Amino acid sequence: MLEYHLNRDVDLASRNSTFIKDSVEWMTDHFNIEKGTRICDFGCGPGLYTTRFAKKGAIVKGVDFSERSIRYARETASKNVLEIDHVLQNYLDFDTQESFDLITMIFCDFCALSPDQRKILLGKFYEFLDDDGSIFLDVCSISAFDQREETIAYGPYLMDGFWSANEYYGFMNTFKYGDEKVVLDKYTIIEESGTIEVYNWLQYYGLASIRKELEDIGFCVTEHYSNVSGVPYDPKSPEFAIVAKKKNK
Asked: Is 228 helix (H, G, I), strand (E, B) or coil?
């Protein structure tokens, strides 16, 4: 997984480096990121965003449960002489007494959570966010859901070796749930040492449905874009990004 995070040319575990650079530059201008801006990146992975935020002078915290990714993020911060607090923890269990000017969750990570998990996470966002702060996250769109089909795929090294460094044979079954706007990609990975199954659920959203989830917690959506680099909103985009603030703040 770390190898795919760090691949500069593909959008698989993380977006490509050109997109990340452009999105950070846009966020820097849009959210006035400067020296002293307090940012927390949930699902920070190997620090592709936290490192760039810190180089802008921000006070940055990143949270992720991948030990290898956090180790890489910490090593990168050390090499660049950047003080970033990279926390090795499931962000659903993360707690802090700090407050933040900006909370980010990027690459549609929010969509991989169950309804109960999303409610827990948004509650944490509300608790940790400064009254004048913003949350910024992206989600998979209904347009993307409409393009998905129920399929079966299988073969050696399914997804070009993404699932293991060892020899394996993989199966993928895709299921669509129309009423819920949810897709399940079920992966079965067979190695000499045994078999693993991975269930990758993705929630797809329209503007109305993401607004409702946020409003139920106490947020209001103030802006929306086609992606996290600030491209104007297009309902045909496979994803979209939203900015939300606390209501009446």
From this structure: coil
